[in-house]
Amino acid sequence: MAQTYVHEPLPSSRSIRLISLAPSVTSNAPIQCDIIIVELHDRRTKVPYEALSYVWGSPTGTIPIRCKGMELLVTPNCHDALLHLRFRFSRRILWIDAICIDQGDDDRAIRERNSQVQMMGDVYENASRVLIWLGLAHQSTPRVFRMLRMIGFVTYWPEGHDFAQRPAKIIRTALSRRLQGTLKDFVHIKRLFVDIVIANGKESKGYTEGLQHLLGNRWFFRVWTMQEAVFARKCVILCGNSQLDWTLFNSALGIVDISFGDLGVLWLATTRNVAGAQIRKYKNAATSKVSDTSPTSRDKMPSKSKFEFERMDVFWIRTLGHLQCSVPQDKVYGLYSIFRATGLELPDVDYKKTVQEVYGDIAKSFIRMHGRSLNVLLISIRPQGHDDFPSWTPNWEMSHLPGKDVFDNTGNVFFEGSTYRASGYSLATTPSLTPATELQVRGFIVGGVRKIIVSSTAGKQPELVGVRDFSLNFIVACRAWLVQLGSIWEAEIYQGQGVPINALINTLAFFEFSGTEDLDSEQLDQIEARFHCWADVFIYPDCDVVTTQDIEAVAQLDPSLVDYPKMIEAALDVANIRSSGDIVSDAVKRILRGANLFHSELCFQLANWAFLFLETGHIGRAYFNCREGDKVALLAGSNVPFILREVEHHRYQLVAPAYIYGIMNGELWPADEIGVEDITLV
Fold it and tell me: Could you give the number of structural domains in the chain?
C-alpha cells in the first residue's frame, strides 16, 4: 500500500507551497509532482507560478496522484485540470489550493488554513497568470469560445478604431464570413450578436445554448472564485482544450447582456470583472496600495473615492447570499482579501468560530467602517420568520438579490442608496465584537403598530398560490386600507405637517414619490389625478366620480354574483375598458385607465408590503412579516426607521425597515436626544 503524503509545516506565516507538475508525453499517464516551498514577496526566492481557479466538485479527494513519490487524493475536477495543464516536455509550476494547503482537520492544519486564507489575494495577485478551469468541454464549447474571442477582440477596441488595420481586418473578415454579414463599423459589430447570433437560424440556437451552458458553469457561482479572478493580473479561461482570454470574454459579455435571457446568470458572470475594475480604479485613493492586502485608511481618502468604496460594500453585502460554498463561513472568508483590499477591517480568519459569529463579525465591521452607519441591517430581514441567527445579523446563506418579479421580494431594496435621514445625522454606537450574538444600539421608540393590513398571499410565490389570487388579495388589502383611513382621509392636515393627500400617495408608492417636492407642478398634478382615479375605483361601491353602474358595465359582471375585489379587477382590465364602446363615457374610460396605471405600475410593486397604522396616528409601510404590537424605532446611525419586536425589557428582535410618512427626514429625532435609550438587538 502506497505511503500517504503528509504536508510538512510551513516555516513562516508568509510561506506557501507550489507544485512542480512533472511532464508526460502520454496524456493518460499518472500525475506526478513535487512540492516547493517559497516566501511570498521575497525577491530572492521568487519563483514564477500560475494559480489555478476551479471548483472542487466534491468535498474530498478520491483520485490518487503521486506527490513526492507518495499518494495524495484529489477531486476528479482537479485531476482533469492536472491532465490538461501538464506539459509534454517540461515541468509546470502551479499553485492549487487543494494540494498546496493542508486540508486536514487537526489543529495545525486548521491554523495553517486560517493563515493561508488571509493570503489568498496575495497568492493570486503574485501569480504570473490565473488559470480558470471550467472542466471538460461541452460539444459547443470550441465554437462558443471562437465566437466570444472574435466579438471580444472587436469590442475591446474603442469605437473610433480604424478597422482597416491588421489584425482587426482579419478578425472583421472572419467574423463577417462566419455570420454572412458585412461589418462596416463598430455599431454594426455591437448589433451583430443580437440580430444574428441570438435571433436567427439553427446555428444561432447552438451558440445561444452553448453560451447558456458556459455561463451556467458552477465556477461562476462559487464564492472562492470571486477573489481569484478579481486579484489576477492576467487571466485565461480553460475548458477542455479550448481557451479564452479573460479580458476578451468580459468585452464580449458587454454585448451579450442586452440579449441574453438569464440576466441573473449573466450578472454572476460579470460580477468579478466589475469588482476587479473597481478595486483597480480606486486602489490609489488610499495611502497604501490595495495590492498589499492590509486594510487601507478610508479616512484619508477623497470623499468621492470613499463613497465608491461604500457602494462596493453594498454590492458585496447583497452578493454574498447569492454565492455558493460548502462551508458557510466561507461566504465571508472566501472574500476576505477583497474586503481587506477595500479597507474593511476584519478579525483574523478563524474556522473555529460559528457561522453566526463570523457573519456577525463582518456586519459589525461594516458598521464601524461606514462612519457608524447601520445600513447593513437593511438586509437582516427574515421574511419567513427568525432562524438560528441573531435577528440583526444578515443570513448570507440566503440570497438578498431582487427577483425578476415586478413586485419587491426583499423588503429592503427600495431603501438602498436612499437619502432619508430618519435619525438625523446621528451616529451608531461603535459595536463591540462581544458578545457575538448581540448588537448594542441607541434608539428612540416612536410608538407601537396599532393595526396592520396586508394581503393574505403576501410573501408567497404567485405561481404557487395562483397569479390571479395573488393579485386579487392585494386588491382586497388596498381597499381595506382606504376604508380604514377614515379621519386621516378627511383631515385638513396630516400630523401637523402637510396635507393628507401627500401622505397617502407616498405611503402607496414611497419609492417613487418620496421626493415629490422635486417634481414640477404638471407631474404632481398627474400623480394626484391618477391617485384620485385609483382611490375612487377602489372604494367601489361607494364611488364618487364614476358610478357603480359604470364600473359594473365595464367589468361585465353581475354584482350579486361576485365580490367587490373581483369587480374592481375586471373594471381595471384594459381589454374590458377597450371593449366597453359607448356603454360608458370617454371620461369614465380615462379614469379607469388612470386607476389601472397607478395600481399596476406603482402600487403593485409593494404587493408584499403591509399597510401600517401607528398608535401615534402615523401611517406607513413595511414588509409583510411585521405584526400588530411591534414597535417603530429610530436607531442612531440609520437612515430609515425599523420595526422591532420586544422579547425582554430593552431587548428586541429586528423585524424589518419601514417607511413611515412624516418621520423619514429626522422630524421626530430629538435634537437633545432626550428619550433616546440603549437598545440591545438579539
Answer: 4
